[in-house]
Structures
1.
Amino acid sequence: MSQNSRTWGRKRSFWVAAAVVVHTLWTSAAPAMMYPLYAHQWQLTPTVTTLIFAVFPVFVVATLIALGDLSDYIGRRAAMLWGLTASLIGVLLFAVAPDVTWLLVGRAFMGIGVGLSAGPSAAAVVEFSAPGKAKLAGAITTAAQAFGLAAALIMGGGLIQYAPFPTRLSFWVLVVVLVATLAGVWHLPRHTKAESSKRWSLKLPQIHKPLRRVFLVSVSAVLSAYSVGATMLSLGSQIAHDLIGSSNALVNGGAISLFAILVGFTGIVAKRFSSKLSIIAGASFSIASLLLLMLATATHALPVFLLSSAASGAGYSLLFMGGLNLINAHAPMHHRAGTLSALFLVAYLMQGVVAMLLGRAATAWGLDLAIDVGSLALAGLSLGAMLLAIFVREPQKPPADQPVSSAQPEAGR
């Protein structure tokens, strides 16, 4: 089978895969700055606004349960094309939504899109990376997530504050980005050596027995990261507006985007850290960020909120990168996307649970008390990730996988 002359080489494919990673967090955070506007426009309670957020991880989880290892069989390219198409439908629904029902359906499509593409894109970044650069792949994946978050928050805040159609225009911009990314993915190799030769069948995600201890450490780190991220993304703009007293959407978006900026900066600076050191340091930063968040809401101090946002970004980056690098170092090539999908499954499930619990607590108790109780609980989760990283011994590493060459597809595929 000859290689299509329009198929891109490994280096360009690497960056296209990273662009798909960008979309997963950009799509996730796209409505983050809109929640106060939706609440005002349609008289929504915090329970409903966090429900809009939480529908997304619920559908991510459902997709990962059913289709988490699909790209190990049909190819990274096909899975990412389906995922980007579903995300595009969801974003279009947000761009034209006349009421909250359209938002809920749109979030469902976004969740399906990210569920189909999160694992394959993270795996593709590793597989299209240069030989011996697996840790760099983890840092690039983390930085790509940061870029997606920052784009959603800063652009969303700026367009809300200074452009017309505040609840719609940023989604139309994202539509253009998704169409361009789809075009890039179309030129990726159709099949690679990382695929299994067996037929795909519907089944629950499974973790191979030798990986279970390392998976426990990885998933504790990543779900801790995603839980802290859920606090910032589902309630951050309302915290800045209601508790800190900032009415400028761009300022609020910039404050929350410190989270994203520190995610990317930390990922690059700490790319040589061992997985264990990353998780321990990330848990420490996360605990500090949650204590600072409690202090910010108690004192209504924007500078303290900025420190909390920055510390949570550093914590997220280190926890996520440490967990991801741990899996990348131990997961066999033919099971990598399935294992990563199982990792994201648990993380997104926890993200949805945290968002809904915070929303219900904010409605019942008030936003300030909900933040205090939630921060203490999430600090305990980060402490648990730290202790697992310290005390759980890693298994012996398997032989290193050969990097994927995009110049020649696997014979007979």
2.
Amino acid sequence: MWSAGMKWMFLIVGTTIGAGYASGRELWQFFGHESGLAILLFTIFFSICCTVIMEISYKKKSTHYLPVLREIVGEKLVKFYDVMIFFYLFSTTVVMIAGSGATGQAFNYSKWWGIAVIVVALVVLFMKNIDGLLAINQLILPLLIGGLLFILILFTYDQDLHLFSHMSEQRNWTAAFPFTALNILPLIAVLGAIGDKVTSKKEILIASIGSGLILGIVSFIYNNSLIQIADEILLYEIPLFAILKHYPFEILIFMSVMLWFAIFTTAASGILGIVTRISEFTNKPFVWIVIVVLITMIPLTTIGFSTLISFIYPIYGILNLYVLTRLLLFPLWKKS
């Protein structure tokens, strides 16, 4: 039970901690000053939503997201959100691939090297279908979360920051709603694809509560660190590098590798959602669908990493508010 629960927990965290989140760009886009309460609300909302999605997926024994999506939004809106979730996964995976290019640029390499590496790695990963993704999540994510927390806590200590010094100032609490909504849609896609593999409700609780707590704690410490370097963030495509510049080059290398793996796991989750949906309409091998999808994504990465996040993420955050509301109120309206 614990092993399976942890496996799904890492899948959820891996889906959420991608280029936008791990780099700090997504957190700064939504949170920033006076956001402690917003992050607490996000933690609660996120855990509830994951529980509802996994329980529906478990009951339906689903292998792709459409049955789960239909249960959440209803028959009338399922076609609209089916199209939107597909384009969401497509565009955010483009963001991840662009993020790999931006990571390469941080070391004075061409962005095309970073893009080529992640594309090839994704093709190799999906030669074993979903099993490769679950295995790499369990291997990489403890290192990523541990490394990120270590840097953020060290930065907090070195800068003599006080995590709870502005708790009376919480005017940005409403940011919890679009931020949670933004991160929910990919989870419907990914968790909807593993319904036939979940074996008990206890696994669901471990995965949902555990992932919510991890993301809530990391988000709070990370956001507090970014507030201290607010004036410098505009100068960096990836805000995390504004924190890492205070530390030895070896730490920069390690965290850059971890950041790339965060980008990679989220891109893999997006590809999983897209390909499992497409496979309903074709008998082509899984890996061949992956290759075709990636080829169509590459030209769109020329838009730029930070531009994609600042434009796409707020739009999806607003559009997904209806899905968030349905998930939070699911037990009530389903009973009625």
3.
Amino acid sequence: MNNVEIAVTDSVEWAFAHSLVFKQSNASSLHCPFTLTPSSIDKVRFEGLQQAAGLFGQLLHAISKDDDFIQQAIAPIADTDPLFSALLTLHNKLSLTQSRRATPLLIMRTDFMDDQQLGPKLIEFNGIAAGMGPFGQRASELHRYIAAQHADLFQTYVEHHHSQNQPGTQIQPEFIANDAIEKLADGIAKSARMIKQKHNDAGKPTFVMVVQAHEDNVYDQRLLEYALHAKGIRTLRKTFTELHGQLSTGDNHRLLLNNEPIDVVYLRAGYQQCDYYDKTIIEKYCCRTLMSVRMMLEQHDIAMNATIAQQLASSKRVQMLLSNLPAQALMKFGLTEQEAFTIKPFFGEMLPLHADSIAHLMTTGLDNWVLKNQGEGGGHCVFGEDIVTKLRTLDEAEYESWSLMRKIVPLPRSHPTMIIRNGEASMIGDMISEIGIFTVNIDGVAIDDAVAGYLVRSKPANVMEGGVHSGQGAVDSLVYR
């Protein structure tokens, strides 16, 4: 084998040995796609992303507390989006009955992409099921391993930058630390102990991860669970169907699972309508039945991510509304004037869908815009001529559930590298990256410095769907220029 083949085989085996894999069956797995070498970013720019992510965490927490704003923001899409209709109904019931008791634990990933002309722009908020932090850390560790074990190959494909003081002298890249597993686990463990101590319970705090049945992205989740085990936290995995049959109420609004108290609930499901469907329950009522679990959770004394309010606050609809507000208007959500002006430039151009914005779309060119609905995960964006096709299928009543976002045009890497997928390497000469910054807030208070690691997903510039799990992207890491 040549040097590339040796490095690919070695790195794939490293990925399997360190759980950087997707589950295929109970007896098999497939490694997560990854880049051979990391992306580079200017230190000041990365620090700016971290600062912005922390402020967005504060902003989204404040919005989640503003019942009137959420109801006014989401009501226009409730008639045509069944998931948001159900969530808004539960939100209104919780607001009217003043029955919320859960402590909001906002584990959020804020995704950015760097536009060639406009600089870093917000792609989206992920306030529910904000995953892949552990895989982001593993990608950083894998790149450090490749740099040490296959130094010559790494140096061939990593982006080099030259010293300003000594022209022609290459500067060795400096890896950016990524401790997402530890930081996310710290925030969850802190909230778990807070609830446990409040009730003077004996034994280990208990953490419940709500998951989809037959989850194939299980190892990313397991890495977080194992870190919690190391901190003395008991972990359980449950679907909404299982919770429906096993939850009850204890003394002092304690939430019981099979008659044992639980302290934290973390949703890795619940962001799509099918998560609330179960054919074993009468079909006419199954979604309503499983949706009621969300309300029951919030009516008990637990720490919870994501609350219904957090999910609505981090929606594309709210993002679109915020993007059209002046910086001063963001101060109503508790930001200082300086903080508001700091994050305002990160909002990209987003337009509500109506006759005037469609006319603007046609005038400025289809290739300059992306049509988005309210869905989370891959497959919810429409590009190019497909936008016209999609618009023809929509009734005007459905327009409120969609928005137009100015397409971000990032600058590709200056140096080609490889993506390793299915055990094989493909050379990519125009790699672009999306950077997600994790933050953790417990009832509005950020843990540590608010930043809890990062996730980089890279893809060829001509690929539209860049998700690692559902598109053509690959996990990546960062070095300073």
4.
Amino acid sequence: MNVGITGLGVYLPKKRMTGEEIARIANIPVNIVKTKMGIDEKTIAGNDEHTVQMAIWAAKEAIQHAKINPKAIDVIIYFGEEHKEYPIWTAAIKIQEEIGATNAWAFDIQLRCGTAILAMKLAKSLMHSDENIQTVLLAGGYRNHDLIDYENPRTRFMFNLGAGGGALVVERDASENIVYESDIITDGSFSEDVIVPVGGTKQPLTPFLLEQGLFRLDVTDPEGMKQRLEQKSLDNFIKVIRNSLMKSGFTESQLSYLAMLHMKKSAHDYVLKVFDLQDENSIYLSNYGHIGQIDQILSLKLALEEGKIKDGDVVTLVSAGIGYAWGAVTVQWGKQRG
């Protein structure tokens, strides 16, 4: 049984925040923002561009691209962020309603910025376990830039957070854009390094905490996290890519394109170098920033529009999310290989 991508959708807000603006607000040199952090500009959501709403707009584009009736969708998986319109709310059911997928059932999943890879793995697994599931919609939105305090140096590595929505339609017995195997690593030693410290059961949100701005993301042990992450992060990036390729029956030399999340430029270049790839084998998202779970889908769409992916190319989507989680999934674009 093959599972293939038949629809692809991305929604991006028109508003942008430039590297110069970030530098000014954060009081850091602009060349650090542009060169080291890799941010020329990033997407910023407007007042009406809410997290799940952006997922809905992306989902409608993906459905149109797949040329299917929404009533043909069997399952909807929301893979976007928990920072959304309401704090306790099943987003996938809202998406179901808005797109008219009256025959579907829906649920949310969460693995921070690694959730898109997890969603693809789950969609394929669901189809293997239930022959009645033919078509799955994956959709997510992201606007975690709301949670960044640019005057907090502990969160400097997250100054790239942007906004947008992304969606995929995947179908059973597809003959093109076949989704092969995935690989995911999680490491609980980082599980409480990056948190929003208030608003949960440990410290409920109060007017005082709200006034103090403590509802934003923070890093509990920045130096310790940096040291531990440097020892593991890039190695785990390489490991999940290699494992995904190997499980899928491809060699590293067959890899044609890496759809990577936005991270610092030196790390992006390092991963390409390990796999003997060039700049044209990926897209560095310096004009978009890090749109969380949406990065891989955005990279895939941009690459198709720019002609960087051709029929038969082996494409690996790779992610990382605070917590910490690393994931990769391999797709062969175009018609199914013989």
